[in-house]
Structure formats: structure tokens, C-alpha cells
Amino acid sequence: MSVPPKFGVPRGPSFALLAGFWLFTGWLASPVRGATISVTSLADSGPGSLRQAVADAVSGDDIDFQVIGTIFLSSGEIVIDKDLDILGPGMDQLTLNAGSAQRAFAVENVRACIQDLTIQRGAATEGGGIKNDGELSLLRLRVEFCQATEGGGGIVSFHSISLTDCTLSDNSSGTGAALLFGRETRRWPIPPCSRTMRRLGVGESSTRASCG
Question: Are 93 and 119 in contact (CB under 8 A)?
Fold first, then answer.
């Protein structure tokens, strides 16, 4: 009478090699998560400031806030030149005030998300509040009282931009008082307010728009 073979966990060098392969491929498949850098100061620059956090971050990091109040920018726009998520505590909790002397954010050819804060009193030739040359997602953002001499009082975008639950109000410019789309802009996806935003982006005199 023949005895059926017993099936168990394989042993020996072959199993060790196979297990190592599984672990290696699993490690490769695991997403690499960036660090979270916390802003602990409302100062324009220096340790704990938003400007310093952006400078110290590497691509893929998140920046959050352990402070509420107003950051008064005084040493130029904050340049986002790496993939970053800037996660504010809420539109009514944190304001970046550019003092009508500089733009708040300039996004270069990177992927960035800015959410849950207010930008006010930015000023520039284009995009008084934000200038976007990358893939930018804006969520629950308020942009107000910004100005541009040529276009995009609140925001100017030359690449991909998404706005969700945003308010752009009381911004001023000769063209696109709230939001100006550059020639290469891909609007992905601007939710129900898309028609309104496109009208305001092309030379309309209105200064107010909302996304929801």
C-alpha cells in the first residue's frame, strides 16, 4: 500500500532563497512614504518657520502646522521646488500675509498640494497669490486681496491645476482678477465651478469665485 506524500513547508537552501525573494519584492512594492515636518513658528524665516520647513524638506515630504495665526512674509515668495504637501490647520486658523510686497507661493515643475489655509495680500507681475508651473492641487484654500499688474490677481497657472472647495475673492488684475490660465494649463479636475473659473480667468472684471 503506497503512502501519499506529505506536503509541508519546504526546507533547505531553496526555501531560504525563495523567502528572501518574497521579502525583497515585497519591499520593492511597498510605497515609500516621506517624512512630516511640522511648522512651529509664525516667523517669516528661521527655525520652525514655514520657509525653513520647505527648504529642509525632500521630495515626498508633508508639512503640517503646530501653530495658528498669521505668518507675515517679508523676505520674498516661498518657492516650492520639490514634491510637497502643505497641510494647513484650516482657512480660519492660518493666514499667509504677503504684505502687498511679494507673491506668497511659486510652484516650479513639481507636484504640490496646498490645503486648509488662507493667502492674502500677495503682489506680483503675474499671480499675486500663487504662480504655478507644476502640477498643483488646491484644497479648501482662500486667496484674497491679492494683485497682479499683468494677469492672475489671485492665481496664475501655466500647467496642471486642481481646485476643490476654494474661495478666491477681492483680488485685482487687468486680466483674470481671480485666476488666469496660461496657454499650456491643463485644468484637472476643476469641480462644479469650472465654467465660472474659466470666465474669471480670461479678462473678466469680477474678483470673486468659489469652488465647491
Answer: no
